[in-house]
Amino acid sequence: MSANEIEQTAAASAGASDVSGSGADTADDAAAPGSAGAAPSTAVPAADWIEHRRGVDGERLGWMRMHASDDRFDVIDLLGRVIARDLDWLDAEELLDETGIAYLAHPYELRLDGRWVRVGIVEVSPDRILVKTGVTGAIDEPYELHALGFPMPAGLRELGR
Prior knowledge:
Blueprint: H1 3-14, E1 17-19, H2 27-31, E2 49-53, E3 60-66, E4 73-76, E5 82-87, H3 89-99, E6 108-112, E7 115-124, E8 129-132, E9 145-148, E10 156-158
Parallel strand pairs: 1-9
Antiparallel strand pairs: 2-3, 3-4, 4-5, 6-7, 6-10, 7-8, 8-9
C-alpha cells in the first residue's frame, strides 16, 4: 500500500459515515419486547451477555444470553443478531463453534441514499461495524468506509437475502 493510499484510508476512516436503523432480529430487539423500530444501541454488549471464544485460537465467535426465568440461552453472533433461541449451554456453544466467522466474509449490501450498494465487512467489534464499498477486488478501485452502529442495523443485509 502506497503512502497516498494509506492517507486516503486514514482520511476515509476518520470521516466514515454513520448509518442507523433497527435490525429485524437483533439482540436489542429480543431484549426489549415491543421495541421494534427503536434505534440500535451503539453500546457494547449487555452485561448479561456471556462471551464465547473458539477454543483453538481464542477468537471471539459471539455471545450467549441466559434467560432470566430458566437455564436456557439465546445465541448472538458477532453482528449482534440473535441466531438461535432457547438452547441449553452446550448446544449454544456448539452452534457458535459451527457458525464460526466465515459469514463476515460474505457479500453484504448497505442502504445508501435510497439504494442498495454492495459492501464488505472490514471490522466488527461491540463498538461498531465497519464496512467498505468497492469490493470487486481491483487494487485501484475507489472505496468509502462506513461506520455502523452495533448491533447490525436494518440498513445492512447479506447480499441476496
